[in-house]
Every structure is written in structure tokens, then in C-alpha cells.
Specification:
Two copies of one chain form a homodimer. By secondary structure, chain A is an alpha/beta fold. In chain A, 50% of the residues lie in helices and 12% in strands. The interface between A and B is medium-sized, with 34 and 34 residues. The structure holds a DNA duplex.
Chain lengths: 221, 221
Amino acid sequence: MFHKVLVSDDLGSINQGVLTVLDSMSIKKVQQVQYCDDAYLRIKKAILDDAPYDLLITDLSFVADYREQQFASGEELVIALKKEHPELKIIVYSVEDRLQRVRSLMGTHNTNAYVCKGRRGLIELGKAIKAVSNDEIYVSPQVEQALSEKTNLEIDDFDIELVKLLSNGLSQDEISAHLKSNNITPSSLSSIEKRLNKLRIQFKANNAIHLIAIVKDLGLI
Amino acid sequence: MFHKVLVSDDLGSINQGVLTVLDSMSIKKVQQVQYCDDAYLRIKKAILDDAPYDLLITDLSFVADYREQQFASGEELVIALKKEHPELKIIVYSVEDRLQRVRSLMGTHNTNAYVCKGRRGLIELGKAIKAVSNDEIYVSPQVEQALSEKTNLEIDDFDIELVKLLSNGLSQDEISAHLKSNNITPSSLSSIEKRLNKLRIQFKANNAIHLIAIVKDLGLI
DNA sequence: TTTTGGTTTACGGTTTACCGTAAGGATATC
DNA sequence: GATATCCTTACGGTAAACCGTAAACCAAAA
């Protein structure tokens, strides 16, 4: 079981529940922070002091305030930490239940567990901690399909960029010009049309307006 | 100060924080529920028993599960309760910070306070409870403008319906047909164009796609 | 009743989106 | 080196959105 745990979550009230869970598992050394940057610095310092944390439990969304932050979201924090210290176990504990996010964190960035805050969130968090301490991964039932499903969401960054530009009010012509001026390829009007057509089919959208409404609802942009 | 309080929030962990606040204010009779329907029934029963609650603190978003619910959201619960029992004080405590929602709840439905969950959420909740117990209203600073601003949102239900239909993928032609078949007037293609043009100007949108993206971000649909 | 202001509807013209087809180019496979 | 495959680009036709103008309609004010 873990000995030294860091909890990162900007809502003080939720932290209380997490601390209770950790306490019930007899984990004594628990610290908490409310900013991603603080989490990063603490973990770095602990490594230098030769007393590293063996588990980080972090939220994803942190409300921005007056403090300038290097890491704007828990996602960025997780990605950076897993890159620099792959041995550090990380459990994400978030209200966010969008599959795309789970897929990215668990699949690409090797997060060890993903727990959805919710009615049974704390129970699941307990399970996650046990699983991760046994070198297993854990994801909440409601987002489990994110991993099993081989949903070929072959939507790449270019597609996302495209719909973002669209939702910002640019015409397909303007998007083409924008891509050309930024030396991004493909940039022809025809290619843009093709991509959008593919996306419309993929999301079963009747037209571009419908497409934007759908991807906004899905939280892709 | 209040004597009998009901807390409604589907995230058990957050409730703990709320209970702490209430406890620190020496409010002893505190019950909590995790479903809107339970909140409604409890309040009704308490009135019948001649021991009514004098404050309800409720979240807005409740994740749906296997239980069939009459009230799908805290918003519906608040509207129903305020209609049937205007004397019951209600504090909304939600992560939702869209002005339109605050405006609706506070302006139209006479909610007594609106507190945003966040880093200072519990502090503000304390202030809100004090204010409401003095027959004042309270809203979190970050959404205060929702009330002060006399934003001439001369957007009527027809406009909202229009953008909803648009975002559902209907063409202007189809919208016209839909309105005609439902005997809603105006229904001509020309009128639809005019309305949408007005909305585009109002929201500074370049085109229909942009408009939908904007109103979705504003939470109007 | 007439006037006036507003809304709804109709219509024509321009721009943009949508869709299929096909040519050009790069890379991989045999 | 020839062939296949995938992606990018080009083009043309149709549909839809966009935009201005004007007529028709309605209701309140004169």
C-alpha cells in the first residue's frame, strides 16, 4: 500500500472526502494542494529530498484565479509528470466523464486510474487506490467502455482545429487562407470540404451547423 | 438563523463540506438527500407534519441513474418548490456559472441565493446563509453581473427555438416547414432569415455556424 | 377612415456550402 | 521500374445561406 500521497484538487470540500478515504486505508502521510503548479513543485522537491511521493490523486479542472499558473489543468500536470517520472502512480479523480479524455489519459499518457466524481465516487476511489497499489489500472464503470471499445475515433488534431476555426465563424475559404498562411497542409478548399464531409458522416450530422453543435456537446471543442 | 435545513446534492463528498459550514453556524437539524425527488418529498412531508424546513441548499446537476426521477435537475426542483412554497428559502450551490442560468433562477424564480462551487465556495456559502437568513439575497461575485447588468436580452422564446432547430441540423427550409406544420407563426423562410440575421448581428456572429457556437457557449441552448 | 409603424411574406441576386468526379503527387509493394 | 494505394488538389453543378428591396398585412394612433 502507499505511504506518501499527494492530493491535488481546487475544491476544498471534495478533498475532505478523499482524505477520509485515505485515512480509512491507514495512509498517514497525506498532503494536499489546490494548484497544479504546487503539486508539480512539491513532487519535484520530494524527489530531490529523496522522499518521493508514491501516489498523486488529482482533479482535472482547476478554476483559474489571480495566480499565474504554468499548468492550467490537471491534464497538463499529469502529462508532464508521467513524462518525467513514469514511476509515479497517478489517479485522476474528476467529474469529467467524457470518453475522449479518459482514452487520452489512460491510453496515451499511462495514467494509472480514472475515477469519476459522483454518487459512488469515493467508493470507487478506494477501489482505484487498491488496484493501483497492486500495479493494476482502474477506471470507473461509467467510462470503462472508453478503453474496451476499439472505437476508431480517427479524429486527429487537424480535424479538431478545423471545427474550432469553423466555430469561430470562419468560412471554408477563410480557413483555407488561414492554413496556407500558417503553412499547414492540407490547405486547399477541396481538402477542407473532404475533411468536413468525413466528420459530418462520422458524427451523423446533417450539415456544418449540426456538426458544430454535436462536437460542442461532446466537449471536443 | 435557520433551524431546519435540507441539503440536496448527488455528490456525497461535497455535502461533507456543506455540513461542516452548517455545523459551524450551530445549525443542528440538518438532513441531506441525493435525489431531487427525495428533496421534494421530504419538504412536502415536513409541511404536512407541521415541521417545515426553513432552508433548502441544492445543487443543479444531478447525474441520472437507474432511478426514475420526476425532477431531472435541481432547476426544475427549485422552480416547482418556489411556485408551491414561496416562503421556503432556497440557496443554489452549483459549479454552473453561466449568467443566463443565474438570471433565470434569481430573477424569474426568486431563488434566494446562488453560490458557485469553487475554491471559495464554502466561504461564500456561509455568507449566503447569513444573508438569506436576514431576508437578503446573495450571489457569488463571479456571477454578480448576471443581475446588475441590464443586458437587454431581447431574445424571446421563438429565437431560442429557432437556434435549437438549427443546432439540431435542420435547414432553414426545413425549419419553415416544421413551423408551418405546427401552426407557429412566423414561419416563412424569409422571416426565419430575418430573425437569424438579427441574432447574428446581436451576437456579432459571422454566420449561422458561428452563431450556434456562441449561443451554445452562453448556455442559451 | 386614414395614417403610421411594425411585422410578415415574397422575390431576385450573390456568395458559400455541398457533392461527385477526376487529375496530380507521394509513398509503399511487388 | 511498374502498380497499387492513399492523400491532396482542382473543377463544375446543385442546393442552401445570405442580403437587399418591396409588397402585403395588421393594429394602434390620429
